[in-house]
Structure formats: C-alpha cells, structure tokens
Design goal:
637 residues, alpha+beta, binds flavin-adenine dinucleotide
Length: 637
C-alpha cells in the first residue's frame, strides 16, 4: 500500500485522516445515499462509499448492533479477490478455514445402512484464482467491512435501532427520495425520523421494505426448501470431519458438513425437504435435537457426540428473483432516472447449498458502489446507474438456474444399484457435476454481456486470458522499481478508479506512443476525463507490463506518464510499471500477444471491460466517453 503522499503521518497507515463532517451520531436531514440494512450487501456498499471522502452516506439497521453469529459462512474465491481490494484478504485468510478438498460419501454397497467414502476431489480447480475458497462466519465478514468503514476518512458507522418503514420518491429538489425511519430501541420505540436522500439502496434482506416501495416482487418457485443448520463443537470418529463433505445416506437423508474456522467448530446442514403449507409449521418447529439425531443416523457407523451447539436455525428459502433491481421503470411503465435500488437478498434469494447468497449479495454492493461514487463525484452521468440492474439481474437469474440444478442434485437420494428402477442420483454423477460447477461456486462464472460498460470481443485474441466481461484474472509479475514479486491484480484497490493495464509490444514502441499520446495530445482521453487539479491517475490508473527482465529496465528511461508526480509535493509514484515474472510469465499465462501487446481496461469492481490494441486511441476514447464526462483540461503533472 502507498501512504505519506501528502506529508509524513505517524501511526497506523490504514487509518485515513478524518474529513470535516465525518460521521456524527445524529441522523442528518439529507444524505447522498441512504442504505437500508447492514448485511453483507449493505456493508460492502457502505465500505465502498466510505472510500469517497466527499460522499455523505448513512446505513441504517433495525438490529441494535452488529450480527454476532450464524447465517452464511462460505466465502468464494471471487469474494476473497474483492476483499483483497479492500485490504482485508490477509486477515480473512489467516482466520478462515480453507476448503482445499471435498469428499463424497454414499451407502456402502455391502451394508446400505452404513456409509462409505466414494471420492475426494480438489475443491477449486487449480489456477482459477490466486485465492482459496474459504469458510468464515458472516458475522466476522461483516465485522471486517465495518472496520474498513471505521478507518475511512468518513468514519462511517451503521445507525442501529433504525428501521426503514417507507420510501417515497417525490422528485423534489436535490434530494428527491423521502425515507421514513422508525426507532426500534426501547427508550425511543416507534419514534419516526425523516431523511431525504439523493439515492436509496435497499439491502434489507428477503423481506425488503424498499423492494415493496418500488413495486417489485420476488418471483420464483412457490415452494421453499428448508435445512436444519447447526454450528457445533463435537467429538466424532468420522475421519473426514475436517473436510467439506457431501453425504448421501440410503434412507436417512443427506448431510453436508462444512468445517469451520478455528479448527474445532463444524457446520452441519441437514436437508429438511420442501416446505408446503401443510408441513410448514412442523418444519419450522424442528428442534436442534432432531438435527443432531438425524446427523448421527446419517453418519452411521461413525459416532457423533455433540458437546455444544453455538448456533442453530431452520433456514427456509426459495430461489426467487425480482424483474428489476431499481425503480428506473415506474409502476405505470414509463421510464425515469433510477434513484432507488435493491441489492442482495432483497432482490434474489438462493439455497444455502451452493453458497451463493452472501457472495452474490456482496458482488451487488461492489457493482453499485463505484457507480454511485462516480455519479456523486461528478465523473459520470446518472445514466451509469442504469447499468446496475441491467448487469446484476441477469447474473442473479443465471445463478438461480445453477442453484436449482445443484440443490436438486444434492437433495436427491443415491441410486441403489440393486434397485435402479427406484431412481435417484449416481454419486459419481454428483461428484462430476460438483467439479464442473466449480466456476460457479468459486464466483468466477459471472460474465457481463457487451453493453455500455463491456466492449465487443473484436480484439480479444490480443489477450485471450483476460476475457471481456469476466473478472480480471490476476497473475504474477515483478514490480520494476523495487523488484517486488506480486499479483498484478493486487495493484487495484477498492477506490473507485479504473485500471488500464498496458502490456507492452515487443519493441516497446506502441507502448511509448500510447504514453506520448495521452501525455501530449490535446484530445488525450486522460486529460479530458480527469477533473482539473486532480492527479492524472485520479479517474483512470495506467499501469504498464513490460517484457524485459526487471533488472534490464532502467527506471530513468520510463516514460514520464509511468512515473507520475503526485500530491502536494509532486512526489514520484514508482508503482506503475511491472515486468513478467521469469517463473510464471503473465504474457504466456494470460495469452497476451508478445508482438503487439494489448491494452486491458478494467473496471473498479475488477471486471475486464475491454481489450484493445495499444494504438487504438480513438476506440479507447470512444469507449471511455460512454462512461465519463468531459472535464476542462486537467493539470497533468
Ligand atoms: P441480509 O443478510 O438478510 O441483511 C439484511 C439486513 O437488513 C439485516 O441486518 C436486517 O436486520 C436488516 N433489515 C431488514 N429490514 C430492515 C429495515 N426495514 N430497515 C433497516 N434494516 C433492515 N445463507 C447460507 O448460505 N447458509 C445459511 O445457513 C444461512 N442461514 C441464514 C439464516 C438467516 C436467519 C438469514 C436471515 C439468512 C441466512 N442465510 C444463509 C442467507 C445469507 O445470510 C444471505 O443470503 C445474505 O446474508 C444476504 O445478504 P443481504 O445483505 O442481502 O441480506
């Protein structure tokens, strides 16, 4: 990380100096963004908005304090990549359980009352991400995000004991949305507070009030599926208790075991089946003893002695989705600028089996956060906000389709070889599907279609491993100035900036011409979109990847655009230039043309927006002008 840019600071460099007007306990009359709900979606959004010192955001939560235990726990590789951009991945990796392998158990062919291991596979395909799939409790995940907010210049904190009861858009003045809040603490119970906002985001879970206020409904299967979920400390002789395990028993049902962080805790998911109006009450009243007994029967002949249950719930959810994630289309069908958004469980719900709920919800927050940041800082027009629903709704639909297939497989009984006519699923088939589905569960299957923020694949062959529309798949490089081996993707922080990774051509001439054009041309796109007085990398951060070994590069020979002078002292930023790592050449790893090089355009939420030739100045300008406003010529140092 970089710090001391504008003068030496003592103390923890991860704590930003507070801005004037940073968080105050009393709710102001007006805010830029009001977020309803401090679950994973709301907190990622709040953490992202807290990185923009000029934006006034508040996050209200009906609970009286932070979540302490329970709910989701699977953190996909893609989510860890996002956490890395918030500076949180080290902490998460240190604390979490790493899902390295998954085991599959089925009825023993010779004694169907007992179970037997039938397979053990690597959990995540090699090379899918530089990060593992990990397990850490949702409460801790949320705590990490609260910490980011707390350390930000805004010192943002949730306003607990405040519930959104009504959202009305009247389009009056600069703050066109009126939100009515109700206090939920005993001393002020039912007291109403009104706040006006430029934008409101409903991250208020599956029973979202904000969703209702914009006339959206969750559509999908009428039936919910229920699981008994238990976080337990137990003594067992089951040998795979520290692996993720899917068990299909012959007649006692299916069990999913998820080892938890800390070495001892284990989560058990017992399938309680479909919920119907007839059985809903009975299922809801399932006692923890029944979950324990079912788990014990499924694990036979192994023993399970539960010593303590830390958390237990009957988690009932259906796979449902709203048509839109914003209010851009009025209830009468006419269009308007979106002002109210919904994210996370408020607009899509998933089964717990594929571990999507928390992960997809956080990605919603990440997608919307930088867009609100760009619009509220005046860098982009409000139309940018339309892309949130356009992008995220189809992604949620795709994940729900996958989730349905996956959950049905996990819930099916195992095929009995002696009675094939009875149906069921072959455990080998289940295992093969698990491996195929790995990209979904790792969170890297998301691919945005060509549109306002995603280019066409005309030049994709110049960098075939950076697939346009998918997340930037990092690889190792060496930073030239200090010879630091690192992941190129880790140059990106969650700071709302775009990254342009310019992979050099063989001679370096095209890269040099690109830098020269941007530094000197009167219609340099960088000058046009950078606000006057800002550092030249304030909006778009150019990074170069050279082909020479790092010791053969003379720092003094680099183009001045790659050694920008920044901040109040005009200090030189030496962290813009990398070379390929001899042990793992990024040009080979990601299929980048050695002859022509490539320009890889990456969004603030780490998705590849475009791949272009280094000399495609006009195409790059056209593309960026779809996203950014033109400012008067910036002061380029
Ligand atoms: P949520 O995490 O639901 O957060 C919504 C937040 O909004 C909550 O803090 C809520 O208190 C607050 N809120 C609600 N209404 C208002 C309002 N009107 N005003 C202000 N605040 C409001 N997933 C799994 O994978 N495995 C599990 O075992 C599992 N168990 C779960 C158990 C429960 C009880 C719940 C609720 C969810 C569970 N989930 C589980 C789902 C997973 O937690 C969600 O998919 C994920 O948390 C979605 O994040 P979110 O931010 O969209 O919503």
């Amino acid at each position: 990380m970089q710090f001391h840019l504008n003068g030496f600071h003592v103390g923890d460099p991860t704590i930003e100096p507070a801005v004037t007007g940073a968080f105050r306990a009393d709710m102001p009359d007006t805010v830029d963004v009001l977020i309803a709900g401090s679950g994973p979606a709301g907190l990622v959004l709040a953490a992202q908005l807290s990185q923009f010192p000029s934006i006034k955001a508040r996050i209200v939560e009906r609970r009286s304090g932070p979540l302490l235990m329970g709910q989701a726990d699977g953190v996909a590789c893609r989510t860890v990549e996002m956490f890395n951009a918030f500076g949180l991945s080290d902490r998460m990796l240190r604390e979490a359980y790493w899902v390295n392998e998954t085991a599959f158990w089925r009825p023993d062919a010779t004694d169907r009352g007992a179970i037997k291991r039938t397979g053990r596979v690597q959990d995540t395909e090699s090379g899918l991400s530089e990060f593992p799939h990990v397990i850490v409790n949702q409460a801790r995940v949320q705590e990490y995000l609260l910490d980011v907010m707390h350390r930000s210049a805004q010192r943002l904190e949730p306003d607990y004991d405040l519930e959104v009861v009504d959202v009305q858009r009247d389009d009056v003045g600069d703050y066109p949305v009126r939100v009515t809040l109700r206090r939920t603490n005993a001393s002020q119970l039912d007291e109403l507070v009104t706040v006006r906002a430029k934008y409101v985001v409903g991250c208020d879970g599956a029973r979202s009030r904000v969703r209702t206020s914009i006339g959206q409904t969750l559509n999908g299967d009428a039936a919910n599926h229920a699981w008994g979920v238990m976080d337990a400390l137990a003594v067992t002789d089951f040998p795979d208790i520290r692996l993720k395990v899917a068990i299909q028993s012959a007649s006692e049902g299916n069990l999913l075991i998820i080892p938890r962080e800390g070495g001892y805790l284990v989560r058990f998911y017992v399938d309680l089946g479909e919920v119907t109006p007839e059985n809903r009450d009975t299922i809801k009243q399932t006692k923890v003893d029944r979950i324990i007994q079912t788990a014990q029967r499924i694990l036979h002949p192994y023993s399970l002695d539960v010593k303590e249950v830390a958390w237990f719930s009957v988690y009932e959810v259906g796979q449902r989705l709203t048509d839109r994630f914003d209010d851009a289309i009025r209830m009468d069908g006419t269009k308007q600028v979106p002002r109210v958004f919904i994210a996370g469980d408020a607009c899509h719900t998933h089964s717990a089996k594929a571990g999507q709920g928390m992960n997809v919800s956080m990605q919603d927050g990440f997608n919307l956060g930088w867009k609100l940041g760009a619009v509220l800082q005046g860098l982009s027009d409000v139309d940018l906000l339309r892309t949130y629903s356009d992008e995220r709704q189809p992604v949620a639909q795709e994940l729900i389709d996958f989730d349905k297939e996956w959950s049905a497989m996990m819930a099916a009984p195992p095929k009995d070889p002696l009675r094939p006519e009875a149906g069921g699923i072959d455990p080998e088939e289940l295992q093969a599907y698990f491996v195929r589905a790995g990209r979904y569960t790792a969170g890297v299957a998301t691919r945005y279609r060509p549109g306002a923020l995603t280019g066409e694949s005309t030049y994709q062959s110049l960098a075939s491993g950076f697939t346009i529309g998918t997340r930037f798949h990092s690889s190792t490089v060496v930073r030239v100035a200090d010879a630091k081996p690192m992941q190129l993707g880790h140059a990106a922080r969650a700071d709302g900036r775009w990254r342009l990774y310019a992979f050099s051509d063989a001679s370096g001439e095209a890269l040099n011409a690109l830098c020269e054009n941007w530094a000197t041309s009167p219609d340099s796109i960088l000058k046009l979109i950078t606000p006057p007085g800002a550092d030249w990398d304030h909006v778009v951060d150019l990074r170069a990847v050279l082909q020479k070994p790092h010791r053969d590069v003379r720092v003094g020979d680099l183009h001045s655009l790659l050694l920008p002078r920044k901040g109040r002292y005009g200090l030189i930023d030496y962290e813009k230039v990398f070379t390929s790592d001899a042990a793992s050449d990024i040009f080979v790893e990601r299929g980048v043309s050695r002859e022509k090089g490539a320009l890889v355009v990456v969004r603030p939420d780490q998705y590849v927006a475009h791949v272009l030739p280094l000399d495609a100045h006009a195409e790059l300008s056209d593309f960026l002008l779809r996203i950014f406003r033109i400012h008067t010529p910036a002061l380029v140092a």
